[in-house]
Amino acid sequence: MNASGEELAPEVRSILDAARGRSGGENRVAVDPQSFPDAVDAAAADGRVPVVAEVKPTSPTTDGERDGDPVELAEGMVAGGATALSVLTEPDFFGGSTARLERIRAAVDVPVLRKDFVVREAQLDAVAADLVLLIARFLDAEDTDSLADLHDAAIGRGFQPLVEVHTRAELERALDVGAGIIGINNRDLAKLEVDLGTFERLASDVPDDVTLVAESGIATEANVRRMREAGADALLIGTAIMNGDVQTNTERLTTATDVRPADRRADTTTESTTR
């Protein structure tokens, strides 16, 4: 079971078990990041949907692998209007690597998210990035560091933590640690099922001063509009961009709508630590 007491899908359980055994970096990382909230605001002011385009060679939920130089793919996404990039560094199930992230981050001028299954502080030191993913569902267990400790450790290194949640309880934990960037994952990692209604049910509980990202299941212009109307400041999109010409796909989704995100609740008891 995970920290929430729920069974995980076998594929996810295998990924998490591998992550728990992965070492960290030899030296403490210090990051001078590009501001993700500022990039989101700039894209919206320019009339673009803020999209975090994901360089994803493969995954347990997709068929096959995507060939092509990852730097060229990343540059195509940025040329198509991507506000930021997400780069997989998980090696065993997603075909990612820290070396690939380093190459991409050196080649583009947008914030780069390290997407991995980080469960211990030392693993933060594997590579520098502008943002790092912390998955609430996988933290606070006996054999992982706590979400609060990892969030603080990430900020101490200069990272902007993107705290991923799927349930209201996980969202409350993210807000309690002062997360300034939160991603709501429409994919249930217990069943690997996708429901865009997950974002719609939780978004109104996120304060307006938090940068809110909709994740998973966003494939069409209609999906983009639906998430923006529900309050998404930005959208993380992988498969729909990777399947085909990445620049064309990114352009299609970043220009899918001129809908601004709906106002969420204004009063908050937590203070953003990344703005």
What report would you give on this structure?
The protein is α/β, with parallel strands linked by helices and 275 residues long. The protein has a single domain (10-23, 30-254), classed as Aldolase class I (TIM Barrel, Alpha-Beta Barrel), CATH 3.20.20.70. It has 10 helices and 10 strands. Helix 5 links the parallel strand 4 and strand 5 (160-165). Mean pLDDT is 89; it is low at 267-275. Residues 248-257 have a biased composition (Polar residues).
Query: What's the arrangement of strands in the largest beta sheet?
Result: 1-2-3-4-5-6-9-10
* CATH superfamily label: Aldolase class I
Task: Indicate the CATH topology.
Answer: TIM Barrel
Poorly predicted residue ranges = 267-275
Which descriptors would you attach to this protein?
lyase, TIM Barrel, Indole-3-glycerol_P_synth, eight-stranded parallel β-barrel, alpha/beta, 275 residues, decarboxylase
What is the structure about, briefly put?
The chain is an alpha/beta fold and 275 residues long.
Provide the fold topology.
Layout: H1 10-20, H2 36-45, E1 51-55, H3 70-79, E2 84-88, H4 98-107, E3 112-115, E4 131-135, H5 147-157, E5 160-165, H6 168-176, E6 181-185, E7 187-188, E8 193-194, H7 197-203, E9 211-215, H8 221-229, E10 234-237, H9 239-242, H10 246-254
Parallel strand pairs: 1-2, 1-10, 2-3, 3-4, 4-5, 5-6, 6-9, 9-10
Antiparallel strand pairs: 7-8
Region (Disordered): 17-36, 248-275
Keywords: Amino-acid biosynthesis, Aromatic amino acid biosynthesis, Decarboxylase, Lyase, Tryptophan biosynthesis
Pathway: Amino-acid biosynthesis; L-tryptophan biosynthesis; L-tryptophan from chorismate: step 4/5
